[in-house]
Amino acid sequence: MPGTDVAETVVVANPNSGDGGHVEQVRERASLLGYDLWESEREGDPVELAREAAAGGASTVVAAGGDGTVNEVLQGIDRADALDSVAFGVVPVGTGNNFAENVGVTGVADAFDVLEGGRRRRIDVGRTGDRVFVNSCVAGLTADASGNTSDSMKRRLGALAYVVTTLRSLPDYQSLPVSVDIQEDGRETTAWAGDAMMVLVGNARRFVWGDQTQADVEDGLFEVTVVEELSVTDAVGEAVFGRLFAGDSEHVTRFRAPALSVRVRDPTATRFSLDGEILRRESLSMHTDPGAATVAVGDAYDPDPGLQ
């Protein structure tokens, strides 16, 4: 836990991430390398621990957990106003480790190797109000599924738990009447409007089916995917055959933007998921902060993944 002397590298660990079986391995590797290991004990701890580490002199602060822990640690570094001076790393030990995959970090041992000798890259973060996100922001069906997936189901099924919850939600799901407006060069234009199942905004994440999910996270642009309203039969059929996000579906619209607003034309606030953190809003505006964070990346990370 925090003290007067802070190591150069501090690992902020969520011992409840994933199945919990990683704890000793993370402790041993951190100790061997002379890193501080600060473990969270309650909800919200990773944010405060990361803030204290960044403000206390650490040069690298690491999230040991899943995508939610990544978000919390990033929030903490940002609250210390230290994103420009403190590097960020990830040890993927959660149920969902999509961000780690997108920066080329494949497991606990690899993560510590990357922290010691891997490349550092400046990457974009997304900002909305006083919050930051690094992987994605989603609204609609997938955000509802994320919020409704129990910890016990995550432990039993891993990332498949979100798919199961999504499919279970389909019969009762009400589509979102939304407009997605792009802000660029001082102008706002409507890029899409209608009834949508989900709006997916990727920063480090590209929303595709099956293939590499890494987006270009150094271009100052979000990758936006809108999935329009579908019948249950059409939605399940598209998912089963892998077409929904594969690029050849008539139900999907894609575009890139440096800033946008998602407005729900309904008096009921909807769920937005920022890297798994659930917010309830009627609208959400967001913009990229290009090159705002320094991240330790693995060999598989591609600075220019190209278009798909």
Automatic annotation (TrEMBL):
Transmembrane segments: none
PROSITE patterns the record matches: DAGK
A Gene Ontology biological process term: phospholipid biosynthetic process
UniProt keyword list: ATP-binding, Kinase, Nucleotide-binding, Transferase
Domain of life: Archaea
Domain DAGKc, first and last residues per copy: 4-132
A Pfam family this chain is assigned to: YegS_C
One GO MF term: ATP binding
InterPro entries, A to Z: ATP-NAD_kinase_N, Diacylglycerol/lipid_kinase, Diacylglycerol_kinase_cat_dom, Lipid_Phosphate_FormReg, NAD/diacylglycerol_kinase_sf, YegS/DAGK_C
Gene3D superfamilies: 2.60.200.40, Probable inorganic polyphosphate/atp-NAD kinase, domain 1 (3.40.50.10330)
Protein name: YegS/Rv2252/BmrU family lipid kinase
Organism, scientific name: Halobacterium sp. NMX12-1
Lineage: Archaea, Methanobacteriati, Methanobacteriota, Stenosarchaea group, Halobacteria
